[in-house]
Amino acid sequence: MMTMDQKTFKRLFFEKKNGRSILKCIQCGTCSGSCPFGNDMDHAPRELFQLIRDGEMEEVLRSNTPWYCVSCYQCMTRCPKEIAVTDLMYTLKEMAVKNGFAPSHKMPDLYKSFSQTVKRFGRVTESLVMAGYGIKHPLDAMGALPLAVKLMFRKRFEVLPQKIGQPEKMKPFLTAGVEKEALE
Is 2 helix (H, G, I), strand (E, B) or coil? Predict the structure, then answer.
């Protein structure tokens, strides 16, 4: 695990695509109030933004907030300053994983499986996401099989991946510009 001082963390975060956008945050709480899982987060998004401004790297990267983000985009569509909150949550997830601060619950494993599938094929393929996740959590994957079968019969679950024309173009959206320095 790499350790960074507050100044380095702030620099790395603010160099990311949309990283500086949190400086526009007026702390209105619209993002936090719009989030369906806001009550489960240890820091509401606006609180997390203030911690980032203060350079509190460890507290930010250990927070459960990014892991509860389900990419519903309600925060982004309602933000009066048009801050890309969901994109920033993906950036924080990536930084937490790369720096050894990912929580011990199962969400980082699901996130990794999801992002690897999208990086490879340019889109989500449910069977691959669950296969990747199932390697680390086989009982969970087995428990999801009855639902997968129902969804397959309704043509709502893809078994074979369908690749988009240029899947490599999706990679920047998933990595959100994580610098090599933060990975070493």
Answer: coil
Is the model's pTM score more than 0.70?
Answer: no
| DSSP codes, 23-68 | GG-----HHHHH-TTGGG-SS-HHHHHHHHHTT-HHHHHH-SHHHH
The three-class DSSP label of residue 11 is helix
60/98 Cα distance (integer angstroms): 14
Domains detected in the chain? 6-102 (1.10.1060.10), 107-170 (no CATH)
pLDDT tens-place string over residues 81-112: 999 999 899 889 888 888 888 877 787 788 78
Place of tokens 């930084």: 95
